[in-house]
Amino acid sequence: MDLTVILEPQEEGGYTVYVPSLPGCLSEGDTKVEALKNIKEAIALYLEPDTNELIDFSGEMVKVAV
């Protein structure tokens, strides 16, 4: 899977990196290489299913075409 990430240099040094297509998925690093390594780990954790969380399906499920 290929995802686009955004690297933002920080004034105090280092980089913040986030994934626009995965809201809330972000990381940081002192170098670009470290930031990219860290975001790969964050993406893996973001996409990992949470088997301990109960999902409430009491609402109505509807498909919509976009």
Structure summarized in a few sentences:
By secondary structure, this protein is of the alpha+beta class.
Q: Nearest-angstrom radius of gyration?
A: 16 Å
Strand order of the largest sheet: 1-2-3
**Which class do the helix and strand fractions yield?**
alpha+beta
Shape: elongated
Number of helices: 1
Strand element count? 3
Give the rounded overall mean pLDDT. 86
> Percent of residues in beta strands?
15-25%
Q: In which range does the helix fraction lie?
A: 10-25%
Q: How far apart are the termini?
A: 23 Å
Main beta sheet strand tally, sense and closure: 3 strands, antiparallel
* Low-confidence blocks of residues: none
List SSEs in N-to-C order: EEEH
Describe this entry's structure for a reader.
With 66 residues, the protein is of the alpha+beta class. It has 1 helix and 3 strands. It has one helix at 32-47; strands at 6-9, 15-18, 26-29. A 3-stranded antiparallel sheet has the order 1-2-3, covered by helices on one side. The radius of gyration is 16 Å and the shape is elongated. It starts with 5 loop residues before the first strand and ends in a 19-residue tail after the last helix.
Give keywords.
66 residues; alpha+beta; 1 helix; 3 strands; elongated
